[in-house]
Amino acid sequence: MKTYNDVYIETRRALRAAGVEAFGTEARILLAAAADKTPEAFLRDLRLYPGADFEPRAAEYLRRRLAGEPAAYIAGTWEFYGLELEVNPSVLIPRSDTEVVTEAALDYLRQKPGARVLDLCTGSGCIGLALAAAAPGCRVVLADIDRRALILAKRNALRLKLSRRVLALEANVLAPPARQLGEFDLIVSNPPYVPTGELEGLDVSVRDFEPWLALDGGEDGLDFYRAIFARWTAILRPGGCLALECGEGQSEEVQRMARASGFGEAAVFRDTGGTERALAFRKPEETETKESESEE
Q1: What is the CATH number of the domain that holds 254?
Q2: Is the pLDDT of residue 286 over 80?
């Protein structure tokens, strides 16, 4: 009879042979889920012998992963900014790149206790919930067009015991905001930004499993940024912050949109690969706007 460690070694080898980059991490995630344990508890119990249903379930999870299905969807949870979130195929899997825009937003919240925050295109709720957890005084609205995503985001708020300060609402970023939303001190978003023509060329684990609704940014990948600047910055309070994640090579054009909309220079945040991954803009105070108008 095999121990957990025996199955772990076999799974690592199979994932490594298949070219899975993070084969060790993914083996732990898959097998912990198969054992109905946390990854930490699974590692602690490696020398133990599992129950009879563990090996068949582990084999099925490995088969699904080798067929291209992401480990996060198989396990049903994924870690983001130190939080364990529920995920499913109705939402994108939170990535470490998105922690960059989360940190950019937190830079503002540290100076603005009690801020009202809007997380546009929230998906699993990962950004908004991370902000709510890290800035206990803030109040957060999670907004998405997909009702399935909102149901999941609500479950994550409950899971993290943040639902008292977090509200999930249906909203279409490509349409004007509803009046009842009110105004916000911070708007943060990781919008769809993959150009439509590039969707078919994505890795199979993304193309065939993650929701295209959350990926497709239009012909040039910038449709949602145009909509945010044209419509949603109107509900950002003067002096407020707009923090946006963007794709590789999109930073310059998004900054141009911001300048055309009256925003100042961006604070630029790079990911571990050096890509300009997040941009933070301050909306001018009303006095600044009046002064610039009088100078003209």
Answers
A1: 3.40.50.150
A2: no
